[in-house]
Amino acid sequence: MDRFVFATKEAMGAAAAQAAAQGIQQAIAARNQANLILATGASQFEMLKALTATAHLDWTKVVMFHLDEYIGLGADHPASFRKYLKERFVDQVGQLKAVHFVDGDAPDPTAECQRLGEVIRRHPIDVACIGIGENGHLAFNDPPADFTTDKPYLVVDLDERCRKQQLGEGWFPTLDDVPRQAISMSIRQILKSERLVVTVPDERKAAAVAGALTGPVTPGCPASILQEHKHCAIYLDEPAASQLPADA
Fold this sequence. Notes:
By secondary structure, the chain is an alpha/beta fold. The protein contains seven helices and ten strands. Strands 1-10-9-6-2-3-5 form a seven-stranded parallel β-sheet, sandwiched between helices.
């Protein structure tokens, strides 16, 4: 795992976006198509702003997936990840080759997982732009995460710390408004990505970052599994890196 620390969120986001753009461009050059995963949430603001401003990418050759969505939340809800990505990515880059959103208000979430799984199996992922949660989660795989399932998407329960993070970031007015379940990409599916670009700002993520980078690989800190990926780079601002040992 490569680690990079920046003085500002803007510099962090720009560097992560540059790495993602390079991976996308390499895939297009090799296969005339790039398959991309995008995360959401406050951690991705600066990275997505820089990525969508990248001038040389042919977005018409990019297929986009995203990591997760709340169950029972409509696409027009202010906290919907579909709304987030439509506004901050899809509407900014224009026409994509394809967009595969997670339908959180599908009548049968298990069937939606199966549908998405069939699609993503036909699209090996070139670049996954992801983050790490305050509880160490990847996507909505809260601890203890399932490190073994090969199902690409899962119905998961959200733990209280995860739900409090969503409240704290301002996506919901009260904790009771935060859904208790979501559809999430699985850990193993994330790890199948050829390249991982991990963007993590803010001091509130510092303990999770330290556990992910320097602790044991354990379902108790889901992001620790990133240590096993051969092409993983993590981009931090100084507050997020504040609990890392100097020699880490």
